[in-house]
Amino acid sequence: MKRTKWVLGRVTAALAVAMGFAAAAAAGEYSVSLASGAGVPMGDFKDAYGVNWNLNGSGEYEVTALWGLGVDVGYHTWNGKKDYESALADSVLSYGAAPGTTVDATFNAFQYGVHGTVRPPMAGPIHPYAQAGIAGYSVKEKLDVSDPAFAVTDITKTLFGYHLGAGVEYAAAPTIGLGVDARYHTVNTKKEFGSNATWFAIQGRVTFRIPLAK
What we know:
- An 8-stranded antiparallel beta barrel has the order 1-2-3-4-5-6-7-8.
- It contains 4 helices and 8 strands, in the order H-E-H-E-E-H-E-E-E-E-H-E.
- The protein is elongated and about 70 Å long.
- It is α+β, with helices and mostly antiparallel strands.
- Helices cover 21% and strands 57% of the residues.
- The protein has a domain at 2-80 and 110-125 and 160-211: Porin.
């Protein structure tokens, strides 16, 4: 509980700073982005879970032409690999589960945080960018046991993490951008789950810009 409050406090403070910059800026534009794609587990995490999908939304204020500050939310989900689920089933069987008992494992992460974006000056419709952010991640591992004598096990924690990434955007119209990006996420889950949750999110993205009146 203390750690959850600490994470929420840090994210809230960072959000307040970001919004304070935005309110003080004299020029720029707002943007809203929606993205979806594949979540590719890495490290020890990939031994238990396979590639699955994610959904992300963000809002950003362009403080200058070179950089912006924003907020983001995201949902990431994975299904357990067969070897991992078989090992879990063997463990349950050792405690007296009925023969043929299976275990379905899922792992979800709900992300909410803040980020900064840097855009090098480029002429033309194609614009690369880099982004870094901090976030609270509400993570849950669910183990669904087929033997009704064994309860479904859920482990849910809110933990601190960060993400780093880069992408490229094509200006399809003055207020619409289409792009792709890749982000590396890591969440400090080692204490609760035995290893940190790390993954690459590879996404297609559409961005809607809202220029401010001068």
